[in-house]
Amino acid sequence: MIVDKIENAQLYQGLHPGIDKALEYIKNTNFSDLPFGKHEIEGDAVFVILKEYETKQIDGNLLESHLKYIDVQYIIEGVEQMGVTMRTDQLPKKAYDADDDYMLFDESYDIITVKEGMFAIFFPDDIHMPDMTTGSPSHVKKAVFKVKIQNS
């Protein structure tokens, strides 16, 4: 997992070509001109989902993990907390869904706060729960990039 400000994006250049594309897209896009929903950047290898919502309380929510895609989550407006832990040998509470690329876990986790202008990168071993409130609900506008781990 990586959490940082977008102005430090160059520190992560070369990790993965798709991550490079996602971070460049963030730096070069006026998100106010982009409609909500899915936008392809490089077919199914790199795409972004632009959304907005109110953060929520964490009661009963499960953490997620992916196998095919790396998540790059960028906060355009607002602030939210995210639950995170490492995937080791835990068994998922909901088995892996290959079509939608996720499995769900009921595990203890640490909390990080991600503010406007910051991004978080979640790799397959990073179990995470986004969209959490920092105390009271907050309005968030976010870009979630999906970066295919390898073309197959």
From TrEMBL:
Cellular-component GO terms for this entry: cytosol
Domain of life, source organism: Bacteria
Membrane-crossing residue ranges in chain numbering: none
Pfam families: DUF386
PANTHER family the UniProt entry points to: EVOLVED BETA-GALACTOSIDASE SUBUNIT BETA, PROTEIN YIAL
UniProt-recorded name of the protein: YhcH/YjgK/YiaL family protein
Record organism: Gelidibacter salicanalis
